[in-house]
Specification:
By secondary structure, the chain is an alpha/beta fold. The protein contains 13 helices and 21 strands. The strands form five sheets. Strands 1, 2, 3, 4, 5, 6 and 16 form a seven-stranded mixed sheet that branches. The chain has a five-stranded antiparallel sheet with strand order 17-18-21-20-19, with helices on both faces. Strands 10-9-8-14 form a four-stranded parallel sheet, with helices on one face. α1 runs parallel beside α8.
Length: about 450
C-alpha cells in the first residue's frame, strides 16, 4: 500500500505548475494539482495572453490612419470595447479548457479549492486532506498597490481586463513593462493617458538607450509621460477619480490604475508551518534545483521571485520534474533569457545592457543604428527604430542585443539563439542580410558607437 496519496502535489495550475505536473506524470508519478482560481495561471487569464490580444486591438486604429499614405481610404471607424472583452473572454475560456485537457490526458488529478500546507507532506483543500511525498509550490504573484491614501479607488491589471466600459481618461502609475504596455493599449484605443513614475527614468533594468528612446517614442504618440511624479492621495466621486501628486498638482480621470510591481503569492498557505523559508519579499527561498529549505518541497515561477517570466517558470517546472522523477538533476540557466515588452513601439532584449557589460568586461564595443522604418516613409508617422549590439572586445563575442521597433520580440527571439551559441560580431558580420527588413540592421552594423 502506498505511503502517500500522491507522489507529487502541485499547488497552483499556472504555466510552471502545469508543466512540472505533466512531465512528472509522464515519468509515472501519481500527481495532483490544486487550483483555487483558474487553469493557466496569470499568463493565460490576466497576463501575457489577454494583454497581447488587447495590444493587437489597440494597433488597428493607428494602422488605419497610416493606411492613407498607401492609398487606402476608410470610413470613420467605431470601436466596441464590450465586443473585444467578450471575444477575449471566450478565447481565455478555450485556453482554460486546453489546460484542463492537457492535465487530464497526462493522468493528473485536478483538485479545485484553496490549498494549505499542514506539514511538509500534508495538503488541506477545504475539508479534505491529501498527502504527498513531494510538494511543488507554484502559486505565482499578485499585483501590489502601495499604501496610498485612497488606494481602494485604484485598480490593477487584474481588473483592467474586465472593465465594463472603456474610460475616456486614465492615470497609470508605474514605470515597468506592465505600465508601459497598458499605456500603449489605452492610448491606441483612444483613451487620454497620463503615466506617472516616481523615478527619473522608467523601465529600470533595461539598457539606458532603450529606456530613453521608448520614453521619446511614447511621448511622440501622445502619452503624457511624467517622471519624478508620484501620487500622494486619491479621491473619488461618483464618476471620476482625482489624484493629488507629491508636488501638489492634481489630475482627474475616469480611472486610476496601479502597475507598481507584483509580489510573490505565498501568504496564508502554511509555508512557514511546513518549514519553508521565505525572504523579506515573501518569496520562497530555493536552491539552484528549485528546492526549498524543506527538502521535499520545491517552488517554481513568480513565487520564487527569480525571473517573473512565463517561459522561465515553464523551464523551472520541467527541471523539477526531471530532477525528482527522472533522477536527472537539472538546474535552469538564467543567463541570456530574452524578453520583450509589448509597448508601442515594442521593445526586445537579450543579454547584457551596455552598463552591465562595462561593469563585467571593462573593454567593450557598442554598435547602434537609428532609422525610420520603410513603412513610415509613406505612412507619415514620425517613428524611429533603434538597434544596439554590445560586444566583449577581448573575445569579439556579442553579449547583448537590444531593439525598439515593430516586432522587436520576434526578432530578438532569433538573436537569443545566436547569443546562446556564443556568436561573435564576426559571425554577425558574415551573415547575409534579408532585404528589405528591419532585422538586417543587426548584421550590417559596422561603425562602433563606443
Amino acid at each position: 500500500m502506498a505511503r502517500y496519496d500522491f507522489d507529487l502535489i502541485t499547488i497552483g495550475a499556472g504555466s510552471g505548475g502545469v508543466r512540472a505536473s505533466r512531465i512528472a506524470a509522464g515519468y509515472g508519478a501519481r500527481v495532483a494539482v490544486v487550483e483555487q482560481r483558474y487553469l493557466g495561471g496569470t499568463c493565460v487569464n490576466v497576463g501575457c495572453i489577454p494583454k497581447k490580444l488587447l495590444v493587437y486591438a489597440s494597433e488597428y486604429g493607428p494602422a488605419l490612419e497610416e493606411a492613407a499614405g498607401f492609398g487606402w481610404t476608410f470610413a470613420p471607424g467605431r470601436f466596441d470595447w464590450a465586443r473585444l472583452i467578450a471575444n477575449k473572454n471566450r478565447e481565455i475560456q478555450r485556453l482554460n479548457g486546453v489546460y484542463g485537457d492537457l492535465l487530464a490526458s497526462a493522468g493528473v488529478t485536478v483538485i479545485n479549492g484553496r490549498a494549505q500546507l499542514l506539514d511538509p507532506h500534508t495538503v488541506a483543500v477545504d475539508e479534505r486532506r491529501f498527502s504527498a511525498e513531494y510538494v511543488l509550490i507554484a502559486t505565482g504573484s499578485w499585483p501590489v498597490v502601495p499604501p496610498v491614501a485612497g488606494a481602494e479607488h485604484a485598480i490593477t491589471s487584474n481588473e483592467a481586463f474586465f472593465l465594463e466600459q472603456l474610460p475616456a481618461a486614465v492615470i497609470l502609475v508605474g514605470g515597468g513593462y506592465i505600465a508601459a504596455e497598458f499605456a500603449g493599449i489605452f492610448h491606441g484605443l483612444g483613451v487620454k493617458v497620463t503615466q506617472l513614475y516616481r523615478g527619473e527614468l522608467f523601465m529600470r533594468g533595461f539598457d539606458d538607450d532603450l529606456r530613453l528612446m521608448l520614453a521619446q517614442e511614447m511621448r511622440k504618440r501622445g502619452v503624457d509621460l511624467r517622471f519624478n511624479a508620484d501620487v500622494a492621495r486619491i479621491e473619488a466621486s461618483s464618476k471620476r477619480v482625482r489624484a493629488t501628486l507629491n508636488d501638489g498638482a492634481r489630475l482627474e480621470a475616469d480611472l486610476i490604475m496601479y502597475a507598481t510591481g507584483r509580489a510573490p503569492n505565498t501568504r496564508g498557505i502554511g509555508l512557514e508551518r511546513a518549514g519553508v523559508r521565505l525572504d523579506a519579499a515573501g518569496a520562497v527561498v530555493v536552491d539552484r534545483y528549485s528546492r526549498s529549505s524543506q527538502p521535499n518541497i520545491y517552488a517554481v515561477g513568480d513565487c520564487t521571485n527569480r525571473a517573473m517570466l512565463t517561459p522561465v517558470a515553464i523551464a523551472e517546472g520541467q527541471a523539477v520534474a526531471e530532477t525528482i522523477f527522472n533522477r536527472n538533476p537539472v538546474a535552469v540557466d538564467y543567463s541570456l533569457v530574452p524578453s520583450a515588452v509589448f509597448s508601442q513601439p515594442n521593445l526586445g532584449t537579450v543579454g547584457l545592457s551596455e552598463t552591465q557589460a562595462r561593469e563585467r568586461f571593462g573593454a567593450i564595443d557598442v554598435y547602434k543604428s537609428h532609422f525610420r522604418p520603410l513603412r513610415h516613409t509613406l505612412s507619415g508617422r514620425d517613428e524611429q527604430t533603434f538597434m544596439k549590439l554590445v560586444v566583449e572586445r577581448r573575445t569579439d563575442r556579442v553579449v547583448g542585443c537590444h531593439m525598439i521597433g515593430a516586432e522587436a520580440g520576434e526578432i530578438i527571439q532569433g538573436l537569443a539563439v545566436a547569443l546562446k551559441c556564443k556568436a561573435t560580431k564576426a559571425d554577425f558580420d558574415a551573415t547575409i542580410a534579408i532585404h528589405p527588413t528591419a532585422a538586417e540592421e543587426f548584421v550590417t552594423m559596422r561603425n562602433k558607437a563606443g
